[in-house]
Every structure is written in C-alpha cells, then in structure tokens.
Please model this.
Amino acid sequence: MTYIPSATYRLQLSPNFTLKQARQQIAYLHQLGISTIYAAPFFGARPGSEHGYDVTAPYTINPDVGTLQEFEVITQELKDKKMGWVQDIVPNHMAFHPDNTWLMDVLEKGPQSYFYTFFDIDFHHPDFSGQVMVPFLGSSLDEVLEKEELQLAFGKQGFTLNYYENVYPVSVATYRPLLQEALQLSGEPQISALVEQLLGELQHFEQEQNITPAAWTNFKKKLYSTSNLRAALEQVRQGVNKDPKALRQLLRRQHFILCHWQETELRINYRRFFTVNDLICLRMEHPEVFEQYHQFIRQLCAQDLVQGLRVDHVDGLFDPSTYLRRLRRLAGPEKYILVEKILEGEELLPERWPIQGNSGYDFLAWASNLYTSAKGRRRLTEIYRRLVPDAPTDYEQLVFDKKRFILNNYMQGELQNLLRLLQERHLIPLEEEEVWRQALAVLLASWPVYCIYGNRLPLSQQEMQVVDDAFAEAHKQAPDLKEKFDHLHTLFTLSPQDTDETRHHKLYFVMRSQQFTGPLAAKGVEDTTFYNYNRLISLNEVGNSPDIFHLEADEFHDRMQYRQRVYPHSLNATATHDTKRGEGARMRLNVLSELSDLWEKHVNQWIALSRKYTAEPSVNDLYFFFQTLLGVLPLDGTIDETLLERLQEYLQKALREAKVKTDWAAPNEPYEQAMQELVQQLLQQDQDFLASFLPFHRQVAHYGWLYSLCQALLKITCPGVPDIYQGTEFWDLSLVDPDNRRPVDYNERRQALQALAEKEEQQDVAGLHQQLLGQPENGHVKLYLLYKALNTRRQLQQLFDQGEYIPLQLQGKYRQHAIAFARKYQGQWAVVVAPLLLTSLIGEKDLPLGEQVWADTALLLPEGAPAQWQPVLGRQTLTGTGSLPLSQVFETFPVALLTARTT
Model:
C-alpha cells in the first residue's frame, strides 16, 4: 500500500538547522497533528549551503547537517509515532564547485573520466575546443593573469589551478611536462630514477580509456610523499607562476577554460539551472547517470528510511516521463512521490505519471484567487494605470517582452546552442542565420507553459494544442516571420517524407527545446515580470498569474472535484521556500481588491509624501514598496530595526530582479540607496506618513488574518495533503528567500501549543475562542486552528484521503459571503464553512460571528446527510434537518469544521 501522509511539515535542513535539531521537534509536530516531515535536500552540498539544492555529493548526507546514524535514529522515532519522512531530491543539477568530485574528475581527466558524459556539457561546441567553461572569474582571464590572481598550486591532491577559494585540478596531460622539467632541474640520481618510473606509470594512465580515480589519487600522492621530488616540483610550480607565458601554455592543456562569469550571457557550452552559472545540469536521461546518482536514494528507500520523495525541478529533465517511471521502479510502489511543478493558467499535471501529485503551487493559487474580489479587478487596473502612467498595461505582452529581454541579455548562449542544433541536424538551412535566430527566439518567448512532456512523435492532442498556441502567439508577435514559423512548426509534426533519421532529429529538438522554455519562463516571469507588474502583487506568485485574478466559488469547487478524482494526494501548499511572500501577507494584500477606493486614496498620499525626500524611486517601484510594507508589517504595527533591515534587503533584491533601474550584473547603487533611505525616512521620521499608513494597515490586516484562517482550514480539508511550511503555525508575513528561511523559534511554538491544549481542558471553549480572537497579534488563534483541524484530519484520514467532495449551497441574505463543502466516506462526514468578502459584511474591528452578522443565512445540507453535527472547534452539538444556520455554525469562531456519522 502506498504511503500517504495525513499532513506534511516542511523543514529547511541546513548547517543552521541540523538533523539533531529536527529530531527535537518530532514530539511537537506529532502533537500539532503532523504525520510526515518533508525535508529540504540533505545530501552533500556546497559548504555553508542554506537550502541544499547545490548538491555536490548525492551519495551521502551533508556532514554539516548530520550523519546517517542520526537519521536512522530519527526515522525509528518517527515510526514509533506512526510518522514518516519525505525527502526532497535534486536530479536535474549539481553544484559547479570544487567539492563536486564527479565534475572535478571530468575537469581533470576529460574523455578518460568515467563521469565524462554525466554532465550536460557540449564538448563539441565550436567556440571552446573541447574545453568546458569555468565561468567564475571576476574579470577577464588576461586581467586575472596580469594581477597574478590565478596560481598553480601543488599539494597532496596533486597540481591545481587556484583562483581565490576556487580550486580546479589540472589535466592528466599537464603532469608529463611538469615532471620532465623537474627531472631537468634535479641532479639527484635518486630523483631521476623516481621520475623516470613515474613517467612510465603516467604513460599507462595516458593510454587508459577510463582512468580509475583511486589509482590516479595514489599516483598523485607519490609525487608529494617524497620530499626531494616534492621540492623539485615545488620549484617547477614557482617557475610557472613567475612566467605568464608558461602559465598560459599550461592553461591550454586543460579540459576546461577559465573565463569571466558574464561570458555565459553571450555563449555557453553547458546547461545550467536557469541562469545560475554555479549549478551545472546532469544528463539524467542516461541510465548510467540515473543509477549512479540514485544509489544512496535507493538505499534510503530500500531500508524504509524515507517514505516518500519530492523531485525538484522535474521540468529541467530531458525526458521527465521516463525519469519518473525509473524512479517509481527504484523507489517501489509503496513510496509517496511528488514533483515540483508550476502549472500555468488552466494547465493540468499529466495524468499518466506514476506519482501522487505535485508540490502544491496550484492549490496555493486557487486559494488565493478565491479570496480576491472579482469586482476589484477592473478598479485596481484603473487605479494602477492612473497612478502609474508608465506602468505596463498588457500583462501577457509584458511576459513576452520580458522573456525576449532575458533571451537577449542573459541567455544568448542557450539560444545560439539551440539554433546550432537545428543547423547541425539539417532541420533548418545555414542561410539567413540571424532571421532564424529571431524566429526561434520569438517562438520560445511565446511558449504558454513551462514545457510539454512529449517523448515520441506524433505528440498528443493536448501537447499539440500547446504547440499550436505557441505558434499562434509567435505569428501575432512577428507576422513578418511567417515563413520561418511555418517551417519550425513542421518540426513538431511528422510527414510521410520524413526518414527515420529526420524523425529522430525532430524529436530530439522538440525534447531539447523544452529544457529551455522552462528556465526562460522562470526567469522572464517569476524573476522579472513579477517585479514589474505591480497592480496587486499578491497575485505575482509562483504557480499563480495576475491574469487570472479571481475564482468564483463554483470554479473552486470544480477544481477540488477534479483534484479528488485525479491527484487526491497532491500537496496543498500555501507557503514554500520559493514563494514570493508569506501566506499571511498574500491573503492580507488580497483585501485590497475589496478596498480599492480606500487603497487609491491612501497610496496617492504616500507617493506624494515620499516625494518630499527624493524624486526616486519610480512610481511603479513605490507602488510595489507600499504593498510590500502593508504585507510585512506585523499585526500590532511594530516597526523596529529588524523590520527595516528586512525591508531594505528585500527591496534591493526586488529592484534588481525587476531589471529596470538596476540589476545584479550592474547595480545602480544610488537608486538602491534612495529606496533604502526612503524606507528609513518614512518609517522612522515621517509622522504624517505613519498617521495615514498605520490606520489603513490595521484595517487591511484585520480582514487579512481572518482570511488567513480560512486559507488554513481549506488547505487542511480540501482534497490533497496539507503542507505546513516551517514556522507558519503563527502568521506568515515573510518575504522571498532568504527572508523566509529565518530561524524558527520552536520553543515559543511548543510552549504556546502546550498552553492551548491545557486551556482547552480547563476552560469552556467559547471563552478560549474569545481570548484567542481578542489577541490575534500573537498568532495563537492560527496555531489553535491548525492543531484542531490537523488532528481531526489524522483521526479521520480515510475520509480526507478518499472521501467524496460535495459542494454545498447556502441560502439567505448573505449567502455570497461564505463557501462550504462536505467530505463523505462510508458513513463518515465532514462539513467545512469559511467566510468570503468580509469587508462588505463586517466592520474593520468586528468578527463574523453570530446572528447579528449572518441573519437568516443558512447552510443547505445534502440529501442523506446526518442531522446532528459536532463542531471540531467547539463542543455544542448542532442539529438541523436540511440546513444549519450560519449564526450557529459561526457562533464563537470565524471558520467551521463539523463532523458526523450516519448509522
């Protein structure tokens, strides 16, 4: 039977939060109602890695995080509590770092390395003469050599080329001339005999097809272990470093070429993760790479140390479908497998994949859009255009333009590589190269989703629909390239004239191209457009789109019924390590869609006040800043130095990601400084600003925390597995990483949970609710809701895993102000009710409780439903034949989870 979590809890393991510290939280998480720890990658990684996605050694646990023995103790303790562990894995890429022994073996041995074909490197690239780029120099190679920043070094690991902390092994071919020079320098017969012997051994290595790492390591140790020879080689090393010509000659013998980091913007001969030079991609489609990379993962699964796997960036793989089938065979049918997948618009996860679902960005978007007012779309659009005259007005056009911007400024090398692939495989002519490049760029920028997954031609009907949509957009964007687009379209289809070779080349291009549409979408949309289109930034979220804006209740129900039917165990996430802002900040900002007139009045004042200090930043950046401030400021309005620092660091990142006034490659420091100073001036000095901002913040934040409770309950009770991101048991007002990886105070949460459990036993529930709702600032009301709902879900796991999802209707005066559904499985029932559109229902200090608010509004029970219901968030049984008054459902708490059984 496949392991299905009741609820997961995401832990960001790192040197600052180790396995020992994770173990200390198990009892607390169990009490909270969590069934499964869902851990960030814990494999060997770059020193000091805070996230684990820069893997250097997939065959071991990062010693800075813990040991296998510590993990075994944890897994046994989890099993004792009937809990489990889902492990995040990273098959697409590894760190381009000296600690990556597989990659260093390639740099050292070239074609003689066993790992030569493991990495996605084009050794036949015409610009690099069989050498792989090592793009980590801070200036050109000539400047680096002139400044003597690059040095030949010699130690127990043999000869290396050192550039500050970067250490790269020299090629095997480098050793012969170095040893020969040492032989000439040394007049000692003993050294001469030893060198002659070593040159003979070296000849053996030079002739091998694959050099055994252990044998080569032993050879290098011999060079260092004899003091006289070591001294001679040290003399040779010093001579090379003093002679620029000799050092250049040595560099030409390497299997790599050192270059400035920005050179990859123009040309590149390895595939990287997005545009990150120091993450090099793997050829995971090769069976030997898959087997080698997954050896330790196989061990973890075979020994049942992990009960599930989460696959990072599945879209980066050449053939995701085949990879997932291999992974399922390796892990076994009982393991819970998820993929990280960002779905665009109405895109659906492929139903044929042998997995349980995705990492939950789709649910995040649906919940957010449910709590965005449809009426606010037009008003916020008008306000944005009025207050920010130069703001982008056509979101889809902006997306296309930013993708083109990324291609032209950061991914020219990738584009040229794809164009050369077409030329070399005779899929396009060699003539008119620039026109073909432009046509290919327009097509890639027009791609409407991250990628398609076809691994055979003809493509499926759904896949061809995506292709056709992409070409339709391309024709719209560049109608003068019609002839070229028509030809490119034939590459996605078969014709009777195609030879077997042509079919093979076409399919390779189709699959290869999809490894670049995803990174282009991520960089063009998530990391650029989302920081430019600022109408309502809560919708600028991973997995979401400002173009969708709102979901009606029946549209939300449709999605939940589909989810229950197809991927009922997919994660329901509302915050992750990749989200642009915290789940609480997102729901708070959504309130602006209901208060658009007030928002316009206030933001107009704030923009005017900011101009007292500086003509910069731009109005668009100010519009972004004021929304950010509304989202991040704590409920009680506390402004301290920590908040200022977080805001200033975040805004610097946001401005650079926007790539308009400043960027990472060429920071505009005066512009960034103007924004940082403005933050301090408005929040610490300007009483007029605070007198306007804080009351509006209190109003928006009040509705925001109520919506956060709604979001939490929906996450736990809708089809799918609820995921709690670390620390979000309290209000989550975090910003994008690294802000969302700040240390979590688990002692505070543990003590608060214990106090809640004790209070629940000692006092009446209505009194506890009143106390919690009267002090929302501390976040304990959210912790209480999670505690009650998660434990109920664990107790009734079959109901929530397999139960039917039944949309429920409401009647009465305020029927549009709530959403409700039932879950039903073999006589067990649950009903969930959550308010909507509260700003037009209650005042800014009120709670949506009782008859005074809900009047005659009632929940209609489905046919065959029980008459008596037990509130999870209360003790008084509710009785109703055919309906339940919302005045009773929401008597003491603003969201409701009811359970019942039919006999």
Summary: The mean pLDDT is 97.
